[in-house]
Structure formats: structure tokens, C-alpha cells
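Pilot study result, target chain (138 residues):
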Amino acid sequence: MNEPHDKTPLGARRTRQRLDILQHLSTAPDFISAQGLHARISRAGTLVGLSTVYRALRDLERMEQVDVIRSEASGERLYRKRSTTEHRHYVICRRCGRSEAVDTDIVEHWAAHLDQLTGFSNVTHTLELSGDCMDCHL
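Predicted structure:
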């Protein structure tokens, strides 16, 4: 029997709005803010509330389906659909916002062992890297 509340990758009811949010997030060329995603969806003709976009992004983050960074300029959270199941870190151009995934295995290894080194449990981390990309540096 097909349930009307089938689970989606968003961890919520399968609604057209939520599927549109996931689709637009998946096709965004780079990290995007909740407001930017809302505007993009609205321009495409889908009526969706900004609060729905925020809830969907929160669900995706909780399910580890998106990578989240904080904009150095505005401080707002930016989102991108995670292309792998692995936790990733990015270096972000502080001028144009272009991002590039970087190898941070040494940081991940260090963070994974902090509980043994400090006695803290459930240790999480945030790593933000920014600079000027080759195009903006010129």
C-alpha cells in the first residue's frame, strides 16, 4: 500500500514543495543561502514559503545530506547538496563565493581522537577556510 506520507531524502512528507527544494538545491552550482534558494524556487514558478525552505534545509542537515558553511561576509548559513556520503570541508572564495572541496584527513583524524586526548565526549567540529580564488586574485 502506498502511504501518502512516504519518506523523502528530506526526512519529511513527500510534498511537491519539498521535492522542488531538493531539486533546486541539487542543481545549484555552488553553496546557496536559504533565501537564495527560496528566490530561485519562486522564479521557477513554485509557491513555497521561506519557512518551508528553512525546515527542509534543517532536515537535510540533520540527515547529513547537505554541507553547510557560514558566509564570511554576511555570517549567514549556506547550503549545498552533499555529493558523497562523506563529511567534506571547503575553501571558499571570500570575493565571489566559489568553493572547492579540500582534503582535510589530518583534521578529521585529529578531531576523531579529541575525546581520548581531552576526556570530552561527542566532540564535533567546524572548519572554515577562505581565500581568494585564482580569478578574483588577479
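One observation from the pilot: The first strand starts at residue 32 and ends at 33. A full batch analysis is planned for the follow-on phase.
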